[in-house]
Amino acid sequence: MHRLLIVDDEYHIREGLKLMVAESDLSVEVSDVAEDGTTALRLYTERRPDMILLDINLPDMSGLDVAKTIREKDQQTPLLFLTGYESMTYIRQAVSLQAVDYLLKPVTSEDFEAALSRAEDRIAQWRRSEEDAIHRHRSLEPLYREHLLLDLLQQRRPAAEVIREMDGPGFFSETSGPPYTVLCCELEEASHQEAAATSKPHGSMHKSSHVFAELAGEAAAAAGAKAHSAAVSRDRRVVLLATASCRAAERTAQQIRQAVQEQLSQGVSIGISRPVKRMEQLPEAYEEAVQAAEHRGWVGYSQIIPYESIQAAEPNSSQLLEKELLMITEIRAGNDAAVHAILQEWSGQLAGLPVKQVKMIVTQLVLFVMRIVQSDAFVGQTSMQEQDPLLELSRLRHGPEMIDYVSRYFVRVGRHVRESREKGIPRKFQRAKEWIREHLQEDGGLNRLAEYMNMSPKYLSARFKQVTGESFADYQTRVRFERARELLLDPNRKVAEVAEVVGFTDTNYFSIAFKKHTGLTPTEFRKTFL
Q: Which neighbouring-strand residues pair with 276?
């Protein structure tokens, strides 16, 4: 029986319509009645009738407004309108709301039965089309499931809408629900031999793509997990696991990696998200899996990378990398002592971390410093005779040897930077720069240096800028604050002592000048970098 909701504010009309339905031969029954629009919407939401008869003139809102609200959520339920007078405006609106019929009061039993019959036909037609759609979906079920999965994970459509559709193609049974975990499988580049074969039509490229698409599901089944997968690109496949513990997710990832290696002779990096309890959380899990997989450049290729491992490294990484700018500044200045001080503290902090985290952090630090070596400031100057430090790091397996290698590399970079800067400067002016660094406490710097160099102050000033590219005052100021930063890294030195060493007799004035030059007061500098 089809359930009918009657909405009319007049009692005798509601009762008359109920009687007509009871006396008809149609498979229709009156399930509910309502006398206003608010009640009608509540009953529609709670009971979901098969068809609705609406009086247009209701006490609280128009029957057309009730229909518009219903149509925002539901395009299928047949609607019939009832009114006391004919109006072309009402008729046009009823047509726009896909009304089955528009009845005028007083309605005859024949007209009413004919309208209900048309509503029944509409329901039958919709159900046939729904069955056809389900049949089409089933015939394309694997591809359809992939599209649905990507719609959800990549948020291409509202999550609630996609999850409702997932009930149709049977994504997961009642026994295979949460927790859900997402794997992001990134196929590595093939060997040279395999890459050459990919140029053949219908050769290895097609085989790799096809086999990669099948391996994830087979590996998941072998590991005892319920899984669905989808291709994000030819080399990236995402796998959704249900009712899988963290250990089960890792076993599945290991099965996939082993199968890809055996059947395709290629490596695969696999990022694993944290488990989630609701399907609405899967887009976040997908992002975690992708982030983890993309960390393969840090932790090494063909690895299984749980998101929790890279997340655990983040607080330590951010704390250690806060000194990045200071490290770059001191290396650019060629301040070996400051570089050593920073590295000594870093080494102590890194020594307490797991090897994978150490590798991630030191790799990122090396990348920062490589930017200095490759920067425009040193283009055309003597390049470092150095093997690729990232390649060297990838060969190391133990934390202490990584820390030792990176420390030595940074010192070599600093020395290279200093030598590159001083190359071409006459020995006489190199001695002048050394004298300035050694006499920061003395007054009358230019006149004293002129005496030391046996030159007039005016000539020395002009030649110094011509040879070094900096004026005497600019160079002296820069060296003062470089030395101040270096000394402030020693927590045993007082600020007043540092000020005196670099030529400031007034500690307050030193603090003001230091902040103007670096953007931080000496105290703030220490809090940031110690």
A: 180
